[in-house]
Structure formats: structure tokens, C-alpha cells
Specification:
Elements lengths: L1 E8 L11 H14 L2 E9 L9 H12 L6 E4 L2 H4 L3 H13 L3 E4 L11 H32 L11 E5 L5 E5 L3 H12 L4 H10 L6 H7 L8 E4 L8 E4 L8 H19 L16 E2 L8 E6 L5 E6 L7 E3 H13 L5 H15 L3 H30 L5 H25 L3 H16 L1 H7 L2 H11 L4 E3 L4 E3 L4 H7 L3 H4 L10 E3 L13 H19 L1
Parallel strand pairs: 1-2, 1-3, 3-4, 9-13, 14-15
Antiparallel strand pairs: 5-6, 7-8, 10-11, 11-12, 13-14
């Protein structure tokens, strides 16, 4: 005798459509009697069939695994009782087949021995999925329609309860917890932090998480508004709700302004002023927690100020700014060019940055032609205005566009007209700064110091109390410095007794994959000086 598990399923909205669990049970048991099939278990479900994460179905799977190869069928009345998801259905049918169980719908039987029958199975499964999707669209449309009508149609937010009005239509009304919502909003106006508000609310018996309190303070439903979310081309809307607001609109917007001000302060950098005594503030990193270190002065008993770099995150590192600055300047003092490296680098830079004279002439000729054309368009435009062909408004807009084009062409043309001697002077001036890093650094303004530090050390710098450490210095600078025989003898590419490089730093090399790549790499550090001094 064959053995079967029978399963009846119904969702809450299907009870009135003849799909009751009792009717399905009767149909399944009568079928088994006619076919001489033993019913070994019966599972009743009242969940949606959009997937198989249903409590009773999971119970059935556990039962089937314990009784593997002893169950022949899983019987349902129709395929939509089994599932409303085509993809999941085929996967589950295969999984059950591996356990020796054949799934069958007694009103829509499928002969699995015939391959073509799978097409009919797909049809029987896809129509319930389509019906489910169509129903979902209608539900979403209904919810959106209710929101546009100013009606909250979901679970009531904290501070409200779900009720029905005189016409038996869902509505939300303030609950006893509304007073806690009012307390939170008024607390922000009084200048209290959200953490303090949460603590006070907890002492009053109202527990709320940090994230939920933040959301609660920004939800317009509490001032009587309903949010209709963005969908397709429709933008988000705030609709006047038919429910009673817990707080006033004035209070809500005052709180939003306070929260916005706090957010701006929170996003503001730890330091907002440049101090000559703290050039490494915001650049130096804590070796304990890797956070950026800040800096501040401290007064001694005599009233004299002493500056310190310190970590505000883990609070485990604090160094005298004078000591750190001295060590850092000694590192720059070790950056020395040899005569050989200077000559070589200057020649490479000239070679890579030089522009072919024929190309220069060709570009100049092209730009001059474009400039003449731009001037001609402006003259023609003036004629059109005088003749009354165009309005003054159109003339002004078009003239503005043509003038910008002419100015851009003129700027490009002036750049080409820069003489070779001027360009050589720029390179020579830059190299005078590079030849003595320490002097250049100490003579620069604090803003230029920070730019120089970032240019030399593209990654974080740490200080251990005696010397600095970084994972990388500027590739071109590192290559030039290690041409020096004396520095080349340092182990692992170290370029100063007060600076150690991370072991992950690669050996110094410059790979010239293309002329453009080489030009970008070689000119990076030198050209940065043009922007510093311009």
C-alpha cells in the first residue's frame, strides 16, 4: 500500500472563497480512500504560499527526513495550495523527489514519467504566481491610495494605537505613550542630548533604542502628516493626515532645525583653525587605534603654553608638539640631493615635459583660427541684434556663451606662448626649494606646510615617542634620495635615522610603462611647488 502525507493550506483572505481547511481535508482523505493510499500525516497551514518558509511545511520537511524512503506522496488539492512561486516549486519538487516523495495535486494531476508534462506543471504553477503578483500590486496601490487620502493604514507607530472610525475604516489615535513622544521632542528644544533623553525615558518606563529615537524625532506623522513615498516619476509627498497630531508643526520643525545644527557640528572637523605650533595636527595618526591625532595647548603653573599632539579617540597617546616637530624637521634635513641625481632628474623632467616645437606651432595656429572664428561670431551676433533679428535676452545669453569660449581659447593660446626660458625658470625655482627641504618647510606658512607634508607622505604618519613611521613616501622622492650611495646603504630603504618605513613598502623603482605615465610620476612632486608658491 502506498503511503502519503496530505497538506491543506489557506491564507486569511481565502477562507471565504471555498478554500477552507475542512473542505480540503475531506477532498484529500476521500481521494486516498479511493486510491487505497494510507494517510500517515496531515498538516494544516494558514500562511501565504509565496515561499516555503512556512512553519507547518518546515515541520513536514523534518518529518520527511526522519522517515526517508517511507513516504510515497505529498498530496494537495491544487498546485496553488503547494506554492505560488514557480522557481521555488521546481526546486522543492526536486528536493522531495530525492527523498522518494512525489508531489501531486489531486485536481490537477501530472504524470512525471512523461517529460512534456513538465510544461503543464509550469502552467499550473505560474498562474498562481501571477495571481499573487497582481494581488500584491493591488494591495500596494490600495495602501498608496490610503496614504494619499491622509490615512495611516499600517501598524500604528509608537505613541498611537490602531482604531476604526464610525464608518469602520482604519485610523490611528494617540495612545497613553504619546506623552513620551512629547517629552522627547521638548527635550531636544531644551538642549538635551538624545542619550540623556533616552535615559530619562527609560527611568519613566519607556525604553527606546538609539536608532528608533532618532527616527521617532524625524517622523512627520507625529505632527499630523502622512508621508507618501516616492514611486516612479512621483516624488515624495507630505499629506495632511486625518489623524490627530501628538505635537504641533512648530515644535516639529524647531526640532528638525536643532537636529540639523547638531549634525553640522558633528561633521565639523575636530580642528578648524591652523596653528603654527601644530603643523602635523590631523596628519599624525595614533599608533594604538590608527585615528587622526589632534593637538591643543596646555598651560603650566607659570602660565606658559605648551602644545601637545594627542589622540581623542583612545586617549592612549600624547606627545610634546615641540618634540614631534623637531624630529620631523630632522627627517626633512636628511632629504638631500646628490649632484648626480639632481642633474639626472632635471634632464628627465625636461625631456618628458618638453613640447615639440612643430606641435606647439600647429596648436598655436589652430587656436588662432578658433579665436578669429569666435570673434567673428560675436560680431555677427551684434549685427543680428541691431537688425532686430534676435531679442536682447537671446543676445545676452548667446554673447555670454561665445565670450566664455573666446576666453578659454585665449587662455590656451597664452599658455602656448610661454617661452622656454620662463619654463626653465619655473623648474629651477622649484628645484631650489627641493634642494633644502627643511629650510623650505620652516619658511613656509602653515597651510603650505600641510600641503608639503601631504605631498611627501601620501599615507599616514605615526610617532612612537622617538621616531616617526610611515608606510610610504612620495615614489619619485624616494627614488631620487636612494640614488645617493650613502642613503642606499640603509636597510630596507630607510631614508632617515628618525623615519622608518613599513615592511610592506616595495623596493624603490620607477616603471615607465608609457611616456604619459612617466610624465605624471616624474612631475608630481616638482609641479606641486608651483601651486604652493603661486
Amino acid at each position: 500500500m502506498k503511503r502519503a502525507v496530505i497538506m491543506s493550506r489557506v491564507s486569511s483572505d481565502e477562507q471565504a472563497k471555498g478554500f477552507s481547511l475542512g473542505v480540503q481535508f475531506e477532498q484529500l482523505t476521500n481521494y486516498c480512500k479511493r486510491k487505497d493510499i494510507e494517510v500517515v500525516a496531515h498538516y494544516k497551514e494558514d500562511h501565504s504560499a509565496k515561499n516555503f518558509n512556512r512553519p507547518e511545511f518546515q515541520n513536514f520537511l523534518r518529518f520527511a527526513k526522519k522517515n526517508k524512503k517511507t513516504i510515497d506522496y505529498l498530496l494537495v488539492t491544487t498546485w496553488d495550495r503547494f506554492s505560488r512561486n514557480v522557481t521555488d516549486s521546481f526546486l522543492m519538487i526536486r528536493q522531495l523527489k530525492e527523498m522518494g516523495i512525489e508531489v501531486q495535486a489531486i485536481e490537477q494531476p501530472i504524470d512525471f514519467s512523461i517529460p512534456e508534462s513538465k510544461a503543464m506543471l509550469a502552467i499550473n504553477l505560474v498562474f498562481p504566481e501571477i495571481d499573487n503578483d497582481r494581488r500584491s500590486i493591488k494591495i500596494r496601490g490600495g495602501i498608496r491610495g490610503s496614504l494619499k487620502a491622509g490615512r495611516w493604514c499600517r501598524m500604528a507607530p509608537v505613541g498611537y494605537v490602531n482604531r476604526r472610525d464610525a464608518n469602520n475604516i482604519p485610523i490611528i489615535q494617540p495612545s497613553p505613550k504619546a506623552k513620551f513622544i512629547q517629552f522627547a521632542y521638548k527635550g531636544i528644544i531644551k538642549g538635551k542630548t538624545q542619550a540623556a533623553i533616552r535615559e530619562e525615558l527609560g527611568s519613566k518606563g519607556f525604553k527606546v533604542s538609539r536608532n528608533n529615537l532618532s527616527l521617532l524625532l524625524k517622523n512627520p506623522v507625529y505632527m499630523g502628516k502622512i508621508v507618501v513615498p516616492k514611486e516612479g516619476e512621483e516624488q515624495e509627498q507630505w499629506i495632511e493626515g486625518i489623524h490627530q497630531g501628538i505635537i504641533s508643526e512648530k515644535l516639529f520643525y524647531q526640532v528638525q532645525e536643532k537636529l540639523s545644527e547638531r549634525q553640522k557640528k558633528r561633521n565639523r572637523p575636530i580642528y578648524n583653525t591652523l596653528r603654527e605650533e601644530l603643523p602635523l595636527r590631523g596628519i599624525l595618526h595614533c599608533s594604538k587605534c590608527q585615528s587622526k591625532m589632534t593637538g591643543s595647548p596646555s598651560k603650566s603653573c607659570t602660565g606658559k603654553k605648551y602644545f601637545y599632539y594627542h589622540c581623542n579617540h583612545c586617549k592612549k597617546e600624547r606627545f610634546s608638539a615641540n618634540k614631534v616637530n623637531t624630529v620631523f624637521e630632522s627627517i626633512l634635513d636628511d632629504f638631500q640631493f646628490t649632484k648626480q641625481s639632481k642633474v639626472l632628474y632635471k634632464e628627465v623632467l625636461k625631456s618628458l615635459s618638453g613640447v615639440n616645437q612643430k606641435d606647439r606651432a600647429r596648436k598655436r595656429k589652430k587656436l588662432e583660427k578658433e579665436l578669429a572664428s569666435a570673434n567673428q561670431r560675436i560680431e555677427n551676433l551684434q549685427d543680428l541684434l541691431v537688425d532686430g533679428t534676435i531679442s536682447p535676452k537671446v543676445y545676452g545669453q548667446t554673447l555670454n556663451r561665445y565670450t566664455k569660449q573666446r576666453d578659454q581659447i585665449t587662455s590656451s593660446l597664452n599658455g602656448l606662448n610661454t617661452s622656454d626660458s620662463e619654463y626653465k625658470g619655473l623648474i629651477e625655482n622649484a628645484f631650489q626649494h627641493l634642494e633644502n627641504f627643511k629650510q623650505t618647510y620652516t619658511n613656509s606658512a602653515i597651510a603650505h606646510k600641510k600641503k608639503l607634508i601631504s605631498s611627501i607622505f601620501p599615507e599616514k604618519i605615526e610617532f612612537d615617542g622617538k621616531k616617526c613611521r610611515t608606510t610610504k613616501i612620495n615614489d619619485v622622492l624616494r627614488y631620487i634620495l636612494q640614488i645617493d650611495k650613502e642613503l642606499g646603504e640603509n636597510k630596507k630603504g630607510q631614508i632617515s635615522k628618525n623615519m622608518s618605513l613599513s615592511r610592506v613598502v616595495e623596493t624603490p623603482r620607477i616603471e615607465l610603462g608609457s611616456k604619459q605615465a612617466a610624465k605624471k610620476l616624474s612631475t608630481y612632486l616638482v609641479l606641486s611647488w608651483f601651486s604652493f608658491k603661486s
